[in-house]
Amino acid sequence: MKILILINEPPYGNEKAYNALRIANQLGKDHETVEVRIFLMADAANCAIANQTTPNGYYNIERMLKLAITKKAKVKICGSCADARGLKNIPLIEGAEISTMAELTSWVVDSDKILIF
User: Fold this and answer.
1) pTM of the predicted structure, to 2 decimals
2) Digits of tens for pLDDT over the chain (117 positions)?
């Protein structure tokens, strides 16, 4: 099974990205045969910025995204969304890739389930 998790919301300020990554990481833990794909659009492009610092006791989206990648999730970032937010020359999390709408639409067509946050 292939599951696409589409995240549109910023990494902090609400908990949509947090909850999306909780699901992704639980899938990676409990269902190793499921292919998890994460596509970051709009303000969610900021989720892939490397070296995030959060207060002690607060969740850290970078660590959660890295865990998903170590569990074999594929992570793509909308290129035009990243450009619009000035992320073109900013270090991104290793394993996350800038992508295109064409690749997203291929994932949509090829996925068994799509979760949108």
Assistant:
1) 0.95
2) 999 999 999 999 999 999 999 999 999 999 999 999 999 999 999 999 999 999 998 999 999 999 999 999 999 999 999 999 999 889 999 999 999 999 999 999 999 999 999
C-alpha closest to that of 45 among 13, 74, 3, 17: 17
Residue 13 CB-density burial (10 A; 0-12 exposed, 13-18 middle, 19+ buried): exposed
CATH of domain 2-116: 3.40.1260.10
